Amino acid sequence: xxxxxxxxxxxxxxxxxxxxxxxxxxxxxxxVGLDIELGYNHRGIEKLSESKTFEETVFLVERICGICSTxxxxxxxxxxxxxxxxxxPERALYIRSVIGELERIHSHMLWLGLAGHFLGxxxxxxxxxxxxxxxxxxxxxxxxxxxxYAMMKPGGVRRDIAVEDIPTVGRMVxxxxxxxxxxxxxxxxxxxxxxRTKGVGVLTREQVxxxxxxxPTARASGVAIDVRKDHxxxxxxxxxxxxxxxxxxxxxxxxxxRIGEMFQAIRIIEQCLEQLKxxxxxIDSNPRxxxxxxxxxLYEAPRGEVFHYVRSDGGNRPVRHKVRAPSYMNVIxxxxxxxxxxxxxxxxxxxxxxxxxxxTERAAAYDAEGNTKILGASxxxxxxxxxxxxxxxxxxxxxxxxRFED
Amino acid sequence: MSxxxxxxxxxxxxxxxxxGDAVKAVQFRNRSRxxxxxxxxxxxxxTRIVFRELGHRLQTVTGTDGxxxxxxxxxxxxxxEGYVLSIRTRIERDNPEIASVAGICKGAExxxxxxxxxxxxxxxxxxxxxxxLLRDDWPEGACPLRRDYRKDGGxx
Lengths: 406, 156
Description:
The structure holds 2 protein chains of 2 kinds.
Chain A: E1 4-9, E2 21-27, E3 30-37, H1 45-49, H2 54-62, H3 71-84, H4 90-119, H5 122-143, E4 152-153, E5 156-157, H6 166-174, H7 177-188, H8 191-197, H9 205-211, H10 215-219, H11 227-230, H12 251-276, E6 293-301, E7 304-312, E8 318-324, H13 326-330, H14 334-337, H15 343-352, E9 365-366, E10 372-373, H16 379-395
Antiparallel strand pairs in A: 1-2, 2-3, 4-5, 6-7, 7-8, 9-10
Chain B: H1 6-19, E1 23-30, E2 33-38, H2 43-53, E3 57-65, E4 69-78, E5 83-92, E6 97-99, H3 108-119, E7 122-124
């Protein structure tokens, strides 16, 4: 009988802002079980929020995550608006969608780069992140910050997009299309990437529904849920765009769903910018108070639905503020997706839900008796990259060819 | 009331029919937010109907220390119709206990573990009730989301 070995991954990884601890149970090379431990970064935000005014909670939740730093604020202000029956001016709705979609593009590019790195395609990583910088430039141009834009407030947004700036923003967004098409074509047709990702880490439609998974993780399995369509908010019901769906729920479909979503995001941004040329202000309804009650705000973050619940007793602070980020519902599905695969595939499968952590900097393997051995730092990425090298030799394929204009 | 989604009204009707007296109150706050008060004993049955029969998606459960009771608010999304159904139940604050729904909906597994450690609610029948966010040797009975929790340990 094969001996079961435990391969711990985590909890800390220098690349990511959120530590998590995965224990892979393996027999030989095959993963037979997975334990996930959370909480290394638990900061008590829900409790802390009760000591903040409603306006301050928006700044607080902006700091939950450095990547989706506008998703939590949008969900939070929508919860406050739902609680107080607060109206939001039309112009602010378009601005919210512009910021939200720019964030989606840079978040998906960050993930795509990491996925390339885990698979051993460091050119994909470096080029994707190089073009991600241009997205951050657009955000800096609009908001003054590359990240943590501080744009959202209950009743509207804090900063307008000036009509005379719109052509510049439009040109900057337009420049993203070429590189994105190149990335899409290079990845979609590459036999090596197919070999590493097709049929790998499959999450079935039934598993998505059982675990209540959200976002690209759900959509790659063909479950057509997207808060932007299903629970209309911001300007998403005022512009044309489509939900991007996969079929097989494998890593490949998760890649292609996210790439497709970046093109949809550009489509949404362009229509919003067009509207912003003519839709008049104000950008803020300037609510004075939040009456007693409770409210729920939903937003489709890059990783899926963000959920905020606030309760007010009529004072200026929430008496309860519940936050549920999308990775909470998605990371748990790893224990289905990773079973039966090899250790070499584990890095990309665990990364495929785009958890707000990524795994393997401090990986060490030991056997069930607790003797440390085998994989040292970044070992998991190494075995993943070695598998690609081996496939490269077997298939005689070079990997994705990237030709970018500069 | 005229713009309440038909499916939402139907969901409430089915619940009232099947769960009977357990459904205490229904509130349509607006076209996309419905709140339902349900007796705690009926939560597994209500969960089975809402999740398995009517195809809602569990978003999360909000647990709140209400002073003399613990309130649990199960948030269910109907993505096809665009509404959120929040099912509210109250349990006693001393030795709070409620049946786990993780066996019906796997998405509830972590959510219940979190409420167990932060508010001290015992989810009876949970397959794996242990710490999720707090460290494994966290002092027993110290529930950080309770109103009377103090950082230096214990109550008061």
